[in-house]
Amino acid sequence: MSSLSKKYNILEQEQKWQNFWDQNNIYKFNSSSKKPIFSVDTPPPYASAAHLHVGHAMSYTQAEFIIRFKRMQGFNVFYPMGFDDNGLPTERYVEQKYKIADKSKISREEFIQLCLKETKEVAKTYTSLWKSLGLSIDWSLLYSTISESSRRISQKSFLDLYKKGLLEHREEPTIWCPHDQTALAQADLEDAEEKSTLNYISFELKHSNTETPEHSDDPTLRRSDALIIATSRPELLPACVALYVNPDDVRYKNLINKTAIVPLFNYEIKIKSDPTVDPKFGTGLMMVCTWGDSEDVAKWKKDKLDTRLIFDKSGHLNEWAKTYQGLDIKTARTKILEDLQKQNLLVKQEDITHVLNVHERCKTPVEFYLTKQWFIKILDNLEDFKKQGNKINWFPLFMKKKYDTWLDGLKWDWNISRERYYGVPFPVWYCKKCHEIILPDEKDLPIDPLQDQPKHPCPKCQSEEFVPEKDVMDTWMTSSLTPQINSHWQEQDENKKLYPMSLRIQAFEIIRTWLFYTVVKSWYHEKKLPWQDVMISGHGLDEQGRKISKSLGNYEPVANIIKRYGSDALRYWSAGSNLGNNLRYKEEEVKDGKKLITKLFNASKFSLMFLQSVNPSDFKNFMNFKNFQLQPLDQWILSKLQTTIKNVTEHFNTYEYSKAKKEVYNFFWKNFADNYIELAKSRLYNDENKVAKTSAQATLYICLINILKMFAPILPHITEEIWQALRELNNETKKQENSPTIEQSIHISAWPKVDKKLVNEKQEKLGDQIVEILAEVRKTKSNTNLAMNKEIKEIIIDSKEKDLEKFFPDLANATHAEQISFGTGDLHPTSDHPKGGKISENLKIKIVL
């Protein structure tokens, strides 16, 4: 008969079971199965570096707890994995690795080949790390956002949106990253604090004898011919196209429609009014430039202001800046302030800390640049997207606020153009003669306009000369289609099975991008939600409470942690926070996970020792409660087991894996291992009372199987190890019957169900009191320096529950008490009875040593 090894070698055994799952296709999606499908939309990480830290491990494993649970519930689980290996993050990774500072020195084709090479290498590393985490992915479903299929679906999406009038190709001020030299979308930005100065700069009114305003009590702000503006960006002076005041500001009403002279550059601009100007900021006079921020853009559009775009694509000043031409932004700022100071035009400066938009990838402050881009219209349909957000089941619910807040703050349509090399090409040409937009037929996708040519002449002018679109799509243009990519959008029968998907799993910081853009695409293409539920994780934090990230360098590679403690121990830590909450990495908690694994192994090893002698055919009898009589203590633990199964199932159904872990942990460690085994041990060793022993053996078997199943989503390796030992015990049943009694893997076994006939509230209460008495005896022995196996004379119990007597044999054996009896009256400590006490209102005991 089977038994577990003397010691559980964590790394060796975890690798063994990972190989076993792969070789036996344990997690493979069965497209022909009639089981209900549970399909998962997984986050494809950027193939831009092979570094997984505990923050990644936390996010992926928390979601996978639910996926394993659903598989055991009987769902046909569709769990793919992919790589977002096109776009800017991959390009930047390749540029850094190969030290490519100037891409003009390498051909587009050579650069793309480097990107493809690196993404394949990174994918191998990620795959190995994910497998080491025990993720139950169906690797046959692996996808890539740069694959031919993904390019076809991305381009199909583009054509569909264009035909529906939801795409526009237009020239306008666009958010621009000077470092990466590409246009960005609003979702590509993040806020960053910067220490700076607010500079009060003097503009000259064209006619010095004109009545001037009283700016403030500060004498330096009262000059007969000066208008004082406050700005943190003096380098934009050569881009200034107007001054603005609030029309209700009495200080400046007489200046509206007058002319001012820009300092240092000596050209004329108009003074205009707009109710959006804040009279309380600075001096109340606002400098509007081409373009400092979104307010500048709004006024430029509304009032058709002149255009003085002073930056080139790399963020250096151009000919509009005159003597400052060629300087970068920071250098120009310093030089212009120096020259203003020399000419007494810098009235004063104030130290400030302000928030500015930076590109989330490279942290460079962004500018606005006039370019022609492709935009998906979203501002006109925000109410539709809010309604779709209301239909989603959010786990946790409070994360929906981030979605709503993002929609409320949107100012721009979605810019999907990127001036880069590596990405999905736009399936677009332009007629060289009449500039008509030329699109391919859907059946010809995917195409690359730089290499392919239209199959027909221009429909407008019949020209056959075309200019290809050189930009590539924003990476989110493709990754927002992961439900369509995974459900095979082009194959209708397969698509209907999987779409909409059951669950989207992701981190909260990409709600504004991946989640929102996926909702946009699904609504525009299908008029439906892309999935039913969304599961949002928090961040992994270091022990100081900082977000774990590559940029901070405050992490240890997850592979190193697994080598020390194993994957299950790390997964135990991951289950330590409620969904959506941040979780600090504490090595002590990973060690606690390892202790649990050891405890589970040892308790199972002990239990299996008493199951070796059981006839394999009796295991079915155990599960069906045939041919044996349950003893009171066994009724207690089995009733508590039903409560545990009920609660753990409810917690997993609502994505509360942390509560599920605590529930099964407490049942296993406190009720089963520490108390039940100790109380039932004497019966297990006693071959004379077959009825009592068989009841204990059956209870061990039932409890162990269900404990393993409830732990399995979180601790997949150790539970598989013990499950296989149990499975070997059942092998002879397989020889006797046509089918095995226990599944090939615990992870495709049936999730436990509450057995109502085992629910016995009275026995639970009685058993709980026995456990309390046992704890009191243990405490007494500890306090008096007695060994736990030291015999005591008597335990006297004052209780109205006379049925406790049925538990006395097990209690006497566990406490090594010569006698247990009922008594009444004063059970407080006396000289004759040094130990006694009140456990509860209805239960008092006296311990006679």
Question: Can you give a write-up of this model?
Answer:
There is one protein chain. The chain has 849 residues and is of the alpha/beta class. The protein contains 24 helices and 29 strands. α1 crosses α21 and α8 (382-391) runs antiparallel to α9 (400-408). The longest helix is centred in the last third of the chain and has 29 residues, at 657-685. It is elongated, with a radius of gyration of 36 Å. Mean pLDDT is 90; it is low at 208-224 and 736-740.
List keywords for this structure.
849 residues; alpha/beta; 7-stranded mixed sheet; 5-stranded parallel sheet; 24 helices; 29 strands
Tell me about the biggest sheet?
7 strands, mixed
- Give the radius of gyration: 36 Å
Query: What value does the average pLDDT take?
Result: 90
Query: How far apart, in Å, are the first and last alpha carbons?
Result: 43 Å
Number of helical elements: 24
> How much β-strand is present in the residues?
15-25%
Shape: elongated
- How helical, in percent, are the residues? 25-40%
Structural category is alpha/beta
> Poorly predicted ranges (pLDDT <50, ≥5 residues)?
208-224, 736-740
Q: What is the number of E strands?
A: 29
In short:
This protein is α/β, with parallel strands linked by helices. It has 24 helices and 29 strands.
Itemize the secondary structure elements and their pairings.
Elements: H1 10-23, E1 37-41, H2 54-72, E2 76-78, E3 82-83, H3 88-97, H4 108-132, E4 143-144, H5 148-163, E5 167-177, E6 182-183, E7 189-205, E8 226-231, E9 240-245, E10 259-261, E11 268-273, E12 286-289, H6 294-303, H7 329-342, E13 346-359, E14 367-376, H8 382-391, E15 393-395, H9 400-408, E16 414-415, E17 417-418, E18 429-431, E19 437-438, E20 466-468, E21 472-473, H10 475-479, H11 482-486, H12 492-498, E22 501-507, H13 511-526, E23 531-537, E24 540-541, H14 558-565, H15 567-574, E25 583-584, H16 587-609, H17 618-624, H18 632-653, H19 657-685, H20 690-711, H21 716-729, H22 731-736, H23 761-783, E26 792-798, H24 808-815, E27 817-822, E28 835-840, E29 843-848
Parallel strand pairs: 1-2, 1-22, 3-4, 9-11, 15-23, 22-23, 24-25, 26-27
Antiparallel strand pairs: 5-6, 5-14, 7-8, 7-10, 7-13, 9-12, 10-11, 14-16, 17-21, 18-19, 18-20, 26-29, 28-29
Helix pairs in contact: 1-21, 2-15, 8-9, 8-13, 9-13, 14-15, 15-16, 16-19, 16-21, 18-19, 18-20, 18-23, 19-20, 19-24, 20-21
